[in-house]
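Each record in this resource describes a single protein on a pair of labelled lines. The shape at a given residue is found from the number at the same position. The record below illustrates this layout:

***
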Amino acid sequence: MACSYGRAVLHVCRRSISYSAPRRFLRDEGPDPLDHATGLEKRELLAIQSGNEDPFNMNITKRGPGTKDCPNLVPSAFKSRMVGCICEEDQSHIKWMWLHDGSPRRCECGYWFKLVEKAPV
């Protein structure tokens, strides 16, 4: 009885295991994410596909002149938006402030910012 148990263990240990990926993954024929996306995700993918790499204006932008007569324009689809200003080039922290529709706001460093209306995605 013990001998047959030992042979069974050896037989199970000799089974080969395949580690290869299925053929459909090797051919890169996965489903298109745009076909499965809905709602806001689909609108974001369509905006990126049409050439708008930053549909939500989340990338860092360089400041312009920033005077009271010519403030830095910040696009927003809402009545207010939080904006961060890196006042000096070598600073490691960001000064945050709220911008509200209609009135420009001055940062502590002296640059002016103004909220402008942008169509939502």
